[in-house]
Amino acid sequence: MAEARTAQALRTAARLGLISAAALAVFAAILLAAGKDPLKAYADTFSYTLANAYGFSELLVRMTPLLLTAVAAALPSRLGLINVGGEGQLYMGAWLASAGAFMFPGLPWWLLLPLVTLLGFLGGAAWAAIPGLLRAARLVNETIATLLLNYVAPLIVSFFIFGPWRAKENSAYPQTSLFPEAARLPSFFDTRVHAGLLVALAALLAYWLLVEKTRWGVSMRAIGGNGEAAQRLGIPVAAWIVIALAVGGGCAGLAGMGEAMGVHGRLRPGLSPGYGFTGFLISWLAGGRPLGILFMAFLFAILTSAGDTLQITQGLPYSVVNILLAMILFIVLARRPARGGAK
Amino acid sequence: MDSPGSTPLLEARGITRRYGTVLANDRVDLSLYGGEVHALLGENGAGKSTLSKILYGFTRPDAGDVLCAGQPARLRSPADARALGIGMVFQNFMLIPALSVLENIALFLTDLAPVIRRKALERRIREYMDRFGLRVDPSAAVRQLTVGDQQKVEILKLLLARARVLIFDEPTKVLAPHEVTALFQVFGALKAEGYAILFITHKLREVVACADRITVLRQGRVTGALDSGRADPDALVALMFGERAGEGRPREAPRPASGARPILELASAGARAAGSETALKDLDLAIGEGEIVGVAGVSGSGQKELGDLILGLRPLSSGAKRILGADASSWSIARMRESGIAFIPEDPLVMAAVPGMSVRENLVLGTGRRYWKGAGLDWPRLESVMGESFKALAFPLPRLDPPMGALSGGNLQRVVIARELAHGPRLVVALYPTRGLDVRSAASVRDLLRRVRDGGSGVLLISEDLDELAELADRLLVMYGGAIAGEFRRGAWQAEQVGHLMTGSGEAAHG
Known about the structure:
The complex is a heterodimer. Chain A is an all-alpha fold.
């Protein structure tokens, strides 16, 4: 049994490695076509990220929200639900956490930090519960609802950034003022790596335990494996749909809280460069498996860093990494037929 | 009918086919003449499907020849068979639900112009419809048709493609009694025009009703080939089952229904319908301890909906549902199950199991909070309880780690039954529990329901097999159009009477 698990893990790792290698090869051809030296580009990327302490710390900073948004997609996926609303849930988590920070600026850190963390979770959870309720009531498909709510959440956040919360200092930038110090997530070793990373790793661990080790996980996997049988066997399917989406959304909300409280220290319109979408991609590529998520989140952190590196060293626009991301997606799509799940 | 001296349209000579260690066909001979209905009879696993697959070019024999109109035929694929005028009507129809009847037929024809001339095609279809009594609306979408009408479309497809030999793989399995009669009339019309029909079945009554000649298979071998004039059911049973014939089928004396405390009661219960479902009207029903209540009906008369209503899957729109006297009208499925309602479905892989999860995990599904242990589950206790259940049922204990989907159909059904009966249910709702099972597995499931009853529990047995109901049911309800059309005590009914009620052609009767 343990050997089978190990073999399975090895196969997964090999598969992910091969996908990445194939994508890198095709991307190299594109770089060549653009008149750039792909080897140098890859070497630069390597030396600016993995081989450099600062670069490596930046990878961890990027990984933090990716892990959480990946869990946000992975948990509902075990029930056969498709949550592509990580982006919106991230924004709403950041928004509610910020509201807490602005409302109780006088609280000591040991009260305020748990509070904003909880609010970050609740913001994302509430936002994801909307599609959950609609789906449970058989009104709207959760894929559509989560996707469309992605466009609403940043507008709500922007309303507050441009309106009630706009910094009083005479700033040209639309942004809120800094959060009280007690609401800032502590960071480590003079880098931008913040406590959100621990939250993310804990969430990934909790996800694994929940799905594989608890009776709730059995219920959720039963729904994903055969919704009709699950219902006939007395599992409250509708309730689980709402719960799974809400808990997933809560994780995305924690990602937003982490970005606001850990990285920026204030709320800005461009809080997330699409972490929610990338997280979905990561979860999907990893097939929802925790180790796969860890690996893919790390890889995607490198890839997005590569965008910055290529911009600086090769004079290529940041968006070329989108080609690389798309390539990976294509290869995966070509390899794997659509996965089944609850209808 | 051609004289036996003429050349058969299709002939199998010494067909042998081996699957691993199983000899599925052992030197099988079969000749099929124009103008005859030839029944291929045998229980599940006797080799009927293998032979038909060989005749249709799906499978190649290890030895033996297939001759078509006297000429050796090379059947490397179904396309070869179709080119030689051999057509097959499968159990699962090969139709595209969203397309119309005409479009489905057009898809199958190879001789159509690139642009379909609908008018001309429709004329051709209608011509065949009239000739053979296969009336369906050519412009109707196939998904709107009843199963019987879909079968007609399958037959029309073959006829328009100029098939002369028609192989029917258990065509009556999906049909209501009146549809079976209509099918036999179609057989008659086809026969009169010189078509050859191979009719695969394991139902004796049908064979005697319509076949001209009968070939009986047992364990891959032909045990008899006879004209229907000389065949009587007892002789056929002997050929089908060999020395095993005569065992089983114990008929008990009627059990007293009075004095039994009702486990489940429905009082003027109704339920709304959506889509192709059947609305339930004014159902009055009581199931007591120690009795099997049978429900007969043509498919789509509301039996599945009744089962769902009892399970709590479907809300009541009127009336009441009571469990041991307590109002259970709005109980959740989980609560119904906790109160001792178990469910044995027709297709466990769809209705009662999760194929991707392990057998062990499937065993814990639906057991409520019995095995909760903190946030986890008490697996050792589950295993010991389920092990006992398997032992009590005399089922072999399967390995628990592999996924449920890896089990064979029979073993899958056993796992579900063992789980459902593990905690001494008060009431077992069995929805077509023997459908699709081979004869022996079906007999063991029936025996099991009897034991559940004898143990003091109630059983609601929903079935389309009147023989099964006659054997098991202490009381029989007949459903038609979502209502109860008749109720009988054991032994107080005749098949024809029930058949009339099932098809809505009789008046409500109570016996």
